[in-house]
Structures are given as C-alpha cells and as structure tokens.
Amino acid sequence: MTRKSSISAALRTAIGGKWRLFTICLLGSGLVTASWLSTAATARPAAPTANEQRIALLVSALMDRHHLSEMRVNDEISKRAMEMFFKTLDPMKLYFLQSDIDQFARENDKIDDYIRKGDVRLANRIYELFLLRVDTSIGYAEKYIDAEHDYTKDETFIRDPDEIPWAKNAAEIEDRWRKRVKYDLLLQTADEVDDVEAKEKMHKRYKSIRRRWMQTSMDELLEYFLSAVTTSFDPHSSYMSPNNLKNFKIQLSLSLDGIGASLESKYGETIVRRIIPGGAADKDGRLQVDDVITSVGQGTSGEMIDIAEMKLTDVVEKIRGKPQTTVRLEVKPSDGTTLKVLDIVREHIELKDSEARSDILIRDSKGEPLAGAAEDATTADEASGKILEQNQAGGGTFKIGVINLPSFYMDMEARGQGNPNYKSTTRDVRNLLEDFNRQNVDLVIVDLRFNGGGSLPESVDTTGLFIDQGPIVQVKGPDGRVQPYPDDDPGAVWTKPVIVVINKFSASASEIFAGAIQDYGRGIVVGDKTTHGKGTVQQLTDLGRQVLPINPPNLGALKLTIQQFYRPGGDSTQNRGVVSDVELPSRTTHWEVGEADLDYPIKFDRVRPLPHQNYPFAAAQAVNELRRRSAERVSESEYFAKEKKSIARYLERKENPTITLNKEKFLAERAEVNTEKEQEELYEDLQDTDKPVFASTPYNEELIKIAFDYLEVLGDARLVAK
Prior knowledge:
GO molecular function, one term: serine-type endopeptidase activity
EC number: 3.4.21.102
Oligomer: single chain
Shape: globular
Keywords: Hydrolase, Protease, Serine protease
Domain PDZ: 249-320
C-alpha cells in the first residue's frame, strides 16, 4: 500500500545496511522486524522547531560542500526532491490527485531556497493535505472490503505505478481503491484464507495504515522530506533521524542494553517474535514467542503504561534501559491464559546473530557427505567453527569450511574510545580461519549472500586475511584524486582456495571483498550473475557535533556519499557489480533490486589499475572447467529445472504491468508465479537469525560440488598460495 508496506521496496533497501535502519535495530526490547508493515506512530507532526530548522541548514550546507557528484542543492535538485517526496508518501499513486501535484508544482524549484533558510514548512503543508487524502482513501478501502465484487469480470489492476498518471479526480481514486481491495481479497483467497477472516484482517490493516500516517512525528516527517532532497543526489545519501541514528550505532556495535527480544507491531499489538539466546528474557524464561505485550512499567513499582496502538519504536524505548534495572511487562500469553506481569532485569546484550559464523563440512573423495553425516551447522550463539565428526569407511576426504558473513560490522564508538577489544568482523573472521587451519580444512566458502555491506575499513582488513600484501580498494572523491586502501600486514591467515558466494543483494563492502578476491586470482566468485552494484562510499556525519563538539545534542545524522570505490584492477563496482565466475540460475538475479534500478545512481567508471599479486587459484582454464562441470549438473537437476521455469515465467510477467482481477485467471497465474510471495518469504528469511550457517538445500549442494571440483582441478596448486 505504501513505501513502507512494500516487500519489494523493503528488499531493495536491504542494501548497504539500509534495511536494518528501516526495520530499526532495537534489541533493547528487541530487534524490530518488519515494523513498517503495520506500525502506528505517536504524534501528528507539529510546526517545525529551531532544531528542525538547524538540521535543514546543516543538511543543505554539507550536501553542497561534500557530495561526490559536486552537484549543489539547486533548482534541479529541488524538482527531483518534490517528486521524490510525493513518491515517498504515495508510491502507488493511491492517495494524491493530479490537482494536488499541480498545486505544489509552482514550488518545484523552491525547495533549495527553503532549506537554505532552514524552512521545512513545505513538508508540513504537503503532509497536511496527504492526511486528508489518506482519510478519504482508507474510507474507500473499508467500503469496498464489505462490498460485493464480480470476480468473473475481465478487468485488470495496474501494479506498476510508473505506468499510470496521478488520478484526475476523486472518482478515479475511488476506483483504484476498489480494484486494490479486490486484488487484496484475491490474495487472501490464494492463501486459502476464508472470507470472514480475510475481511477482518483487511479492516485491521487499513485502520492501522490510517493510524500510522495520522500519528507520524515531526522527526519522521523531517527524515522523509530531507531524505527526498538527499536521495535526489544519489540513492544512498540520506538524513537519519535521532532515533534512527541511535539504532544505526547499535547495529554496527552489535550490542545494546535491554531484555533481548525481537518485537513486531501488527494491527496495533506488540508481539514477541523472537527471544535472543543468552539475553535477559531468555534467562528469565517466562516471556515466549507470540506473547502480546500490553503494558510496560519501570522498576518494581512504576505505573504500568498501556501500549495498545503505540508506535513500536516508542514501545522499544520504554523497554530499553540500563543494565541491572528492572522493567515490568504485562503480557497476554500466546497459549490463551490470563494476563500476567513479568519483571525482567535488563542486561547488556550481544547481538551475535549478525556476527561471522562458521561450519566445517566433511566430504568423501566424490564430494558427497559421508554416510550419516549431520549437516545442521552452528547457530548464531557463538562465532566459532565446528567439525562434523564422522567415521570413514575408506578413501580420501575433504574438509570445507563455511563462513557466513551477514555484514561487515564494527563498533565505531568503542574503537573511537580506544577499546582494543571493540567488535570487529576482521577479528572474528581471523579466529574462524585460524580454527580452520588447526583442523586442516582444505577450502573456505565465504557466504556473502544478503550481505548489504557495512564498514569500509573492516572490508579492507578482512580481505587482507586472504592475501599477503597489496591494494584492496581504491577510492576517488570529488576532487578526482584516487587513494588506495592497501593491506599492509605481511602474510595471509588463509592460504588455501576460497569460494565467495554472492547474490544480487551482496553490496558495497561485500563487493569490495569479492572484487579484490577476484582481481588477485585468490579464489572464485559463485552465485547470481552479479552483485548489487553499489560502488560508493558514505560518510556518517553526526549533525549535533557540527553544532556542539562537546556534549552534542542528538540532531540525527547525514549519511553522505563522498567517494566512489574501485577494484585493484581499476573497475568500479558501481551499477555493474562483481560478475560471478560461475553463475547459478536464480530468480534473484532478475529481480529489479540492483543499484541500476534505483533513482539517480552514480555512473560507472574506471581508474588506473594498481600493481598487485596474481595467485594461482583462478586461471581461466580452471574456471572454464568449473563452469562446464557445474552446467552439466545444473542441466540435469530437477531443482534448477524448476528454477529456470520460474525465471522464465517471472520475466514474461514482468513485461506485463497489469494483474488480472478475474478470479479464475488470477488463481491460475498465481499458481504459476508468485513473485510477491517469494519476496515476502525471502524478507522473512532475512529476519530469521536462527537459520543454519549453511543449510542443506539443492543450491548449497551444488556449491559444495563446485568446491569439490575446484579442489580437484587445482590439484597441487591448492596446497600453497604462491
């Protein structure tokens, strides 16, 4: 319905760590998962304050001075920003009329003038009108939920908003909502939800949408508005509200203070979705998944505050707190028993679900699992490898180490304070590799699927664990100067073969790692056709520190694109990504979630290559042989045959921007291809931090067979890095 309820948009923002901002990493009461699907906010935006004016001035000045493109906040940016702001509020063109767009068109070239003066009142004026349109439109939706629909009629719903203009009048908006509701009811039918339950769910959903928009705070509105300006420069420059800045720092540090529970807001209720292993709630043992939290109190005697209809981030703030303090939760248990009050003592929580994790797989001389070998892999409880012990009847074996790396994380604050034990991807991966060496592992698979990036220094240092010395990445700023970031530490922790697994959601720091491994010939890249294609560097500027360096106020932060990065060989990954050496068929390759699919991406270019060592692990002859063997298996695989058919159906459907609302035809098409459901399931899987390091799937089995082929093809060359 909106940008925040679009699974496809959610996946698209899962790049560069951005999805973690929108899902808001809050484990003080927990990690907020899928929070935009139905959260309600707390207060209607008030008039801009002096702080909001100061923030607008700072954002404008910093964009002018430091953005990579050397563009300025000018009339062109102003026109883009107006379009982007309307798109942010109403991406599906279900609320605003063409007359609304025309009403503000006279100010298309004035946003630059406004924010240079710290004037953000335009955002409020547009939003006030938007709230009127929301109220009217949700009224239409609720009307048509209970209406009779003719499902035999051959009419269509246009699912691509770029294919339709803004509605000319109220009657056209109403008809769009009639079709939207009809489409949503058909989705419920496809999911085998009975009619009564489907209508009840939809009433709750639309009421929740209305409530959320009606209660949006000024901080949120300012973030939408200023980010419309910054994303008019490039997709990754954005203003981060004070609350999102705090949560961003939590995510990078992988720690916080709270009870350790993952929450979701759904239809106005706060639901426990996961208990974090080892956290306070887990140790207490009484709070359970699917329990509903109804009120929160501070200490052993503080007033219990009803949290029904409260915005999830506000609930989180009430549950967060200093270690060794008590929070009381009134809970409606999932088993239907009576309400109970739980007093839980908060603790410092380590967010190990985003740490590097590993497993060791033992294979026989044919690349098959040894008889009876269990392949469950470790969970996220600790960043350590394990070996699956198995007696062997005879013949050789291979040990394959797998490292699952969800992000390139670093505790910036701890590092800045000089703490030598700050949380670090490089330190964790080093420990895993040293363990692999002790256990005589033959090959390492580094799984970067869905790794949206993170810290640039960590990607450089982690890559350095696999090479002796040399440049890892080059960066170029607005002045055109190119600066290399080398690994200066002599020697490599891991000297045997490496396979890097990627998909279209591997971005930014992941692409630095994969590109350097490929350029050095240090290993091979396997997976989707290319990575995401995010080849730019962002700098996070704390705006409060621009005002008061000591004891600064929290004014949020500007995430600003300041550099473009390039591989040691000179190519940027921007828009093009890192191309796999061995491609495996996958629907995600074809989803429009790459950098080139975003608005106003920075262009691809090249710089001079830097001298670097060439390792013997990716010779053209060896890579061609790996492709040939994999292609033969894929051509005979039932799993990949189905995947290829799904890809063909998806590509065919993508050419048609409409969806039939004829029930018979709709259900038939839905049985053939259900991209929305697949993306929703994928997004939910991204939130599942309990999944194995390397699940036993047909896709992963092909990766293992490629690994076995790789070791065989390399022969003696795999023993020592030269």
